[in-house]
Each structure stands twice: as structure tokens, then as C-alpha cells.
Amino acid sequence: MRFSHLVEINDPQNPLITPLTRDQLWRGLVLRAEMPKRFVPWLDQCIITARTQTSIERALHYGETVIRDSVTFEAPDRIGFHVPRQGDIPDARLTMTIEQPFEGGLFVRFEYADGGDDAVDTAESTDQQMVNDFRRSAYQESDIDTIRTIREMAADGLLDAPMM
Question: What pTM value is reported for the model?
Fold first, then answer.
């Protein structure tokens, strides 16, 4: 399954939305990778097992289940998450890309892909289509929650310090 959607960050036409700077947004997205428990309350623990200048490897603990993934940072525009196949968990990817198509406008494009075949997606059964529709909806809600959490962090001044 492949799925992509945009979340608008700044709407110059809506004075009720406090705009985020591109730097605040980037810092917030980095923190989603570095401190995922703040964004995923049902996550029990995240252990960063390796780190380079442009990537981290993590072990995410959900009860007895441990999911290993890697995160790559392409500052200041894109963060990619990759979960390799692990037991019953299929290969999956998430890419978050900051887009700024016009002055003052700011968006994040969330792109999901699992190890499935695109040809299968077009011919999926009604049951599989329902499952994928549910997954798309859950992904979209999670991404909106991510931006809500980033807004809260910005309001609390947690995104104003430079990244190390």
C-alpha cells in the first residue's frame, strides 16, 4: 500500500493558527524521531541503539513487541523512517517532507509505503480495501496529532533552541 497526504502548517488566511517557523517545524519533526514517546503515548520505551550525523537506529518497545527501525535526516527538509521486515511485521517506510510552496505557506507531506506490490493495490479485495482505508485514516489522524504536539511544544518554547 502506498499513501500520501499533506498537512498544512501555516495558513496565512487564518489568524487563529499561530504560525510555526520552518526551523521550529524541523526541530519538532526531529524530536518525533528522537523522542517518539512524546508523540506516541502507547509506546513503552524507545532505545536509540546507534547514531551518526545523519541517522539513528532505534528499538521501539510496545509491551513484549520490539520493533527495530532506522531514521535518516536530510536537514532541513526530509526525515525518512524505515522498518525492515521483522517476523510478522512487513517492510514499511514513512517519509516526512517539509514543503514551502509560497512565502508564509508551510506544509508537511507524509508518504507511506509498505512492502506490498502496487499492482496488488489496484486489484485489492473489498476486505483488503477496507483495511487499507482504515490504515490511511489512522495514519492521517496520527500525522495531525504529530503537528498538534509540535504546536504545543512550540507554544511552550521547546523548539526555539538551536539543534545540537
Answer: 0.90
